[in-house]
Each structure stands twice: as C-alpha cells, then as structure tokens.
Amino acid sequence: MPGTAPFQLMNGPFEVWIFDIPAAGTTEPAPDVANAPAGNWTLLGTSGDKDITEDGIMVRMEQDVSKFRGLGSIATRKMFRNSMDVVVEFTLADASIENYARAMNQATVDLTSHRRRIDLIMTTQVAQFSLLIRGDDRSPYGASWNTQWWIPRCSHDAPLETKYVKGEPVGLAYRFTALVDDTDDLGYIESQDENS
User: Fold this and answer.
1) Domain span at 160
2) Where residue 47 sits, what CATH number does that domain have?
3) Which residue in 57, 47, 65 sits closest to 11, CA to CA?
4) How many domains does the chain have?
5) Predicted model pTM
6) Is the predicted pLDDT of residue 185 greater than 60, yes or no?
7) How high does pLDDT run on average in the chain?
8) CB atoms near residue 7 (< 10 Å)
9) Residue 83 region, left (φ>0) first, then alpha (ψ -120 to 50), else beta?
C-alpha cells in the first residue's frame, strides 16, 4: 500500500542489505528498484526487516569539532572539524551461524560433519563490507518512492554480545563504521522524487 500524505512524516521499517566483499568499483544500487539489489547483495535476516528488533536502525553522523575563541571574546568565533564518522547500528534477531560470521570478521563457516561452525579467533585485518539500508515506499516526496542509505565501504567494529534468556530471541548487535573510499566518499542518503 502506497504511503500517504504528509509524506515527510516517515517511519520504518527499513531493510539492511550487505555486500560481503566489496569489489573495486562497486556501484550504488538504484533506489527505484523495489526488489533485491542486483549483484552479490545479501538481505540481513532470514525475514529481512522482520528480524530487526524494534529498537530500529540508527544511522549516526559523529564528529569532533574544535572551537576557536579569541582573547578578546568569550564567544566562539569559528569551528574546525577534526574528524567525522558515519555509524550504522541495529540488532538482528537472527542467530544463524552466517550472521555470527559477519560480526566476527567475516569468519569462514565450516560445513563439514553435518553442522555449521566458526572459529572464535579473529585476524588482525578487519573485514570490509558494503551496506544498503533501504525503505521501500519511504520517501518524503511522494507515494511509491524509496529512500536509501548507501555505504560503499564499512567494517564491523563493535563487540559481539550474545545473551540467551527465556522469552526473548537472541539478538546480534551490529555496529558498522563507514570507511572513506579512494574518492574520499563515505556514501549517500537519497530519496526518490518527481524527477526519478
């Protein structure tokens, strides 16, 4: 069912797609594709957005800024940006071994002997991924248009905490931090409009 006006009042759910090993020149999927993005993208969660907990998906722009105050003034005169990060966080209620493997540096899944197993030790090199966070029929500009975040390169940099309790699904907490690419690009957010 298409979204309704006022369109700028958006909500979820959004899906998260992951490209396990981004190749050089990986291109951004078009936002007008309502189906799976073309290429080697994998939907996170067996049931997509239905496997992301109700805490939702957080996309945070972190920054460190220095303030300059002259001797003759108590107020800030100018600011200088020292660093910035784009961080994506969500909890996936899908405890498949493959999802553990992504959070553990893209660990190799051993399929021998009628079971799936990954080693807990990780290497010094940190695995890289591409992420696509897509909301079908979620545009602030009209019905049946999409919004998506595209992160060309990122790495998982959070501790993996697994809690087994009665009455709740196991949640895998993901935290991906964007890595700048060869063109000094961290990615995009885009929404379709009447020009799409």
Assistant:
1) 16-24+37-65+76-191
2) 2.30.110
3) 57
4) 1
5) 0.89
6) yes
7) 89
8) 18
9) beta
